[in-house]
Amino acid sequence: MKKVYLLLLFISITAFSQRKTETINSTPLGEARTITIELPASYETNKTRKYPVLYLFDGEYLLDPFSGALKYGVYWDDLPETIIVAIHQNKNDEREDDSTFDAINGLPFEKGAKFFEFVAGEVIPKIEKNYRTAPFRIIAGHGVTAGYLNFFLYKEVPLFNAYISMSPELATQMEVRVPEKFAKLKTPLFYYLSVADGDIKKTKEPIQKLDQNIKIANNPLINYKYDLFKNTTYYSAVLYAIPNALNQIFEAYKPINLTEYNDKIAILKSDYVDYLRNKYDIITKTLGVEMPVRMNDYIAIETAILKNNAYDELGILAEIANTSYPKAMLGEYELGLMYEKMGDAKRASKKYQNASQMEPIGRLNKDLMYDKIDEMNDLIKKK
């Protein structure tokens, strides 16, 4: 029995394992380097979906905490499924050598310059050629690699859309150059910066200066967050920074919750459907995630429409429903609800009848449609 259990456990782990380790024979580095790729759980079953990509320096110890935070967020639908690419830097002081910069001009130097070519010219093209990637790249690092990742900002068009820099060791003039770059950017970019109060003074002071200069640059296109973690060390602060960074970057992805509804939707006088459209436009265009509108979000917008008697917007909501769920009864139901609220029971009944012949979705099912049909027919008879 024990052998059967172990065999089933092995099969289960194999069937659901999404990690693979690959070797890249790097031309600029002149050596073989190892990367680990973790694919989302739905990657093999959803053949058309594309995923954001998170690239990790220090992959040997950052992969598991980032993977755990993402899986937890995905479970609650607060974070999107994401491909993780972890670059290993765990032998012979690789992380320090890979991050080498010229002390005078503050730019990648010797192996640091070659490592830049390795990431930009070999790792990223390999991933984007072989996997279904969305046009949204994140880069993360810790300590010396967290400082190094800022070099990708120096390009005319930054190589990544989001940067997670935890307790960075900053290169020469980096606390000035990064904000200067931010001031000039014309496209959205996410930047997360953190420091532990247990970090050494030599590390903390440039980080604090960087934070001040970014705030002075004050570019509204830069989605910026800075965390100073009390009672933490260089190592322990990472576990606080990771979820904060991911939630900052993917804030727009989250379903509409009570706070968002009260603070942003309930206060509107009209254009409730426009709010929904804009939310999903940001998810698609800024985060590179294509997805149907969640039922929870439909209900939130429908609630606001009904509360404010903006019944004509139910028709617009139905258009979105028919795009996201063409076989489901949601679109016809919204049209039926619109006619019902406008006092046209006959047309409402017809729409509810149409809905009853379509696929159930969320709280909507055939029994509810039949109840609505009976309710409308009773109103028709009374006229």
From TrEMBL:
Keywords tagged on the record: Hydrolase, Signal, TPR repeat
Pfam families reported for this sequence: Esterase (PF00756)
Top-level taxon in the UniProt lineage: Bacteria
SUPFAM superfamilies (UniProt xref): alpha/beta-Hydrolases
Coiled coil: none
TPR repeats, residue ranges: 329-362
GO MF annotation list: hydrolase activity
Leader sequence segment: 1-17
Gene3D superfamilies referenced in this protein's UniProt entry, alphabetically: alpha/beta hydrolase, Tetratricopeptide repeat domain
UniProt cross-references to PROSITE patterns, sorted A to Z: TPR
Protein name per UniProt: Alpha/beta hydrolase-fold protein
